[in-house]
Amino acid sequence: MVEGFLLQRFLKSIYLLIAGSFLVLCVLSSTAFGQTRSYQYDDITVGIHINKDTTIDVYERQTFDFQGEYHQGWRDIPLDKIDSVTNISVIDADTGIPLSYSWKRLEKTDPQNWGKFTSWTEGGKTNIEWYYSAKDTKKTWFLNYTIHGAIGFYQEYDELYWNIFSDYTVPVKTVSVEVTLPEEVPEGGKLESRVYRARNTPWLLAASSVIDRKTLHYTALDMAPQEALTIVAQWEKGIVDKSAYWTDSIKTHWGYIVGFLIVLASLVFGLLHWFFTEKYHQGRGTVIPQYEPPENLHPAMAEVIVKERITDKAWPATIVDLAVRGYVQITEDKPYFMEVIQKFLIILPLGFFIFVLVLFIFAGSLNWTTLPMLSIILVIILAVYRVIRASGNMKGAIIPKNYILERTAPDKLDGLEDYEKKFLNILFGGGRVFSTKEMKKARNAKKQEFYKSISKLKRKLYKETEADTEAYTVGFSVEQKRVGIIVIAIIIGIVVVQFPQSFSFISPYINDQGIAFWISLILAVLIIYSFLHDARLNKEGQILREEWLGFKLYLETAEKYRMQNLNPDVFEKYLPYAIIFGVEKKWAKTFESINMPAPSWYHGAGAYAVGGGNLSGQSFSPSLSSFTSSFSASLASSFSSAGSGGAGGGGGAGGGGGGGGGGAS
């Protein structure tokens, strides 16, 4: 009995467990089924009113059938065949209350956002998005907007070729479209309507008709997801004013047009301001040869006066100037064994390549088929020759020379400008030797420190030139401040256009055209500000600049006139200035007939070494050019390394302007 009783209780428990599990499963399935969401369009009714000025006013009546809970509707309109979409509004058809506009997209589940809409342009489309609360119901909204640039103008008629939609992801039961012209078409005048849909369907499922002389009607039934519906309306010329299109286009694109004119005006103003303040009636107006450096300015300062900037030639020229004045010794650094091997490995393939090409060409007869190849070889040989000539020799062409700078008397500071003292401290620090080779191999941290020091030195040189010469109406200190102001202005401009809701006093103008206008206005202000605060020489400064150009003219033409006062001291003294102006070879050529002792401050190889005998200025020029280019390259190398770390035409659905999709979520 006891065993039977226990068995009954066990079976009863199993039964209850199974029944309970089944019940829970049913409840969960019912809940899951109840949570399934879907929607479709019961009806989409579109009214298109064509205006005399070629714009079209569109209203869409969209009726949704919701199964489940939804809070967001959306609609996008492609812009690829129209100019723009304006005057967008959304109205709740059940209450007749317009939805309020938001300048940004909102969180759809927040009840405070229901009854609002927003619009924006992105991805070549105008997007409309509105927020609401709807559950297991039918809901209707009106979407209103104006289209610009949708009319096509042809020789015998005008046309609207318009996609009602093309990308809806759910079915649409019925579609009704009515097109209204601004006035009646005269009897006998052209007035036609056509409708296209993507699927092959019975004619009853897509039809068009002319209701009267100014109204056309289109219908379609059971539109499938992603199916396009396109309507065509054609009418007699003269119903719309084609000339008004250009007026409307100007109004539509006012931001771009006005912005372009503002920027253009600012550029014209800036150029005129520059011309009348820096060129017109400035200085004496003539350049007369000068036989000595005006005001005895040192090379780097002279470059600032003449070029209003510091180039890579400033520091090599300064070193040569310091060497001539006895502060520095320059020694050519002999290459390591591996550098010689590297040169050989570069030259050998190049020579072999040229040899093979020459052998290939001249192995047979020379004819028109071999001439192009011969031309290519000659170009290669000429290019190699020019590189070698510019570098002074083959070694300099393949492997740039390196140099060792030695400070002769660290305690000797008399006669040095402040920037020259600073430059020597940057190069040598607490030591007496600086190597371009070692700088190239230095760690990035050291290169970065060197780069920062040179950058600070440039600013110091600008200020020192400005103070010593008193040649500027607007100095470099003012010019350098403008950079910070320009950066701040750009940041403010970005904030204004990216976060317009924070600037309610200009919010109505923040759209595509408004953004173009504000960006152009900011750019114009920056252009004018930049021109007004650009470093500018005063009257005396312009005269000083002309005198320095006269000194450059002397360096370029001294050889031509064989000046009688030319001697080795003059050659060395003016050599740094020739480097600044890029005429060191011309200056050296002036002394080609004069035997001069090798400079005591330069230690080269062979005939250029100290004690190696006499040389001419022309023979010294290649080695000098090599030093200038090599030292400039060394500095540039350290800098770069430091930073490393629509119309109609044809027929078919989806071929016109407009279209796009929509939906709910």
TrEMBL record:
Domain Predicted membrane protein YciQ-like C-terminal per the UniProt entry, residue ranges: 289-591
InterPro entries, sorted: DUF2207, YciQ-like_C
Sequence ranges assigned to domain DUF2207 in this UniProt record: 43-235
Annotated transmembrane regions: 254-276, 344-363, 369-388, 483-503, 515-532
Keyword field contains Transmembrane helix: yes
Keywords: Membrane, Transmembrane, Transmembrane helix
Stretches for region Disordered: 646-665
Top-rank taxon: Bacteria
Protein name per the record: DUF2207 domain-containing protein
Organism from which the protein derives: Candidatus Kaiserbacteria bacterium CG08_land_8_20_14_0_20_50_21
